[in-house]
Amino acid sequence: MDDDSSGGPGAQWRVRGVSVEGYRHRRTGTPCQDAWLYTVSGPPEDSVTVLAVADGAGSRARSDEGSALAVQLAVECFTRRSAELPPTASGVREALRDAFLDVREEFLRRTGDESNDFATTLTVAVLTPRWIGYLSVGDGFVVLRAGTVDGVRQFHLLPQPAAASEYSNETVFLTSTDAERWVRTACVRDPEVDGVLLSTDGLAQIALTWVDGQPQQPRASFVAAMLRTLDSPGEDPDEDDEALAALLRSDKLTAVNADDKTLLRAVRP
User: What residues contact 82, with CB distance under 8 A and at least 6 apart?
Assistant: First the structure.
């Protein structure tokens, strides 16, 4: 399990992340192949927070290294591109794609001829005072908490990347030859957004509702509970993380999905 504290002095978002190995990996002693990372840059009044999660391909020999490298490059490249602060939604999406290409190019350069052994998905959210940017390749997902209707908190699933084909559940990876084709981006401008949750697909069946095999919307009770623990943290954040990790490893959640699981959450304090 990895954990981290809030983004430092002046950060506008409180951020915590947890990754746990799935049941199959616990049985075989295989390392967790998920990874997460975040960074905060810029002055307190105009800071940019970049959140990234990645899910290494279970069948690839070095996918745990691949997911760790992917999130490292993502926070570097997306922070650099976000510093330009594009004024339009189309400009934001273009900057996100440019950052993705930066990540992919450097990832392939570092992994060389063995890049397929490091295959991983990648999902990124960029939180700025003016907009929230989102980019995903593979099957990670992002949920936003924004506003209320009749006193009820509202949660929104950001658009999912399309499947690789109409008849396939195959996941697209950062290293896939046509990865750029399957990238999904979005730009959200909503001052009421006060909670963001990123996850790998190990929690998709639990955190989302599904129809005909397709995710439809967030499961409000689960997402609300995950963000609420960060809204009102305990005296020891590490103990909170241990409790969340125990929940993610629990028989109840493992029965739904035995894969590695990652939650990276950000809320406005």
Answer: 48, 50, 95, 99, 126, 128, 133
CA–CA separation, 261 and 15 (whole Å): 17
Q: What is the mean pLDDT of residues 13-40?
A: 87
For residue 137, name the pLDDT band (cuts at 50, 70, 90): very high
Summarised one tens digit per residue, pLDDT across range 99-112 is 999 999 999 999 99
Q: What was the pLDDT predicted at 167?
A: 38
DSSP 22: -
- Burial class of residue 15, CB neighbours in 10 A (0-12, 13-18, 19+): buried
The strand pairing partners of 18, in sequence order, are 263
Query: Confidence class of residue 164 from pLDDT cuts 50, 70 and 90?
Result: low
* pTM of structure: 0.90
Measured distance CA(199)–CA(142) in Å, rounded: 7
Asked whether the beta carbons of 32 and 19 are under 8 A apart, the reply is yes
Give the whole-angstrom CA distance, residue 260 versus residue 183. 23
**What length does the chain have?**
269
What's the gap between Cα 268 and its chain centre? Answer: 17
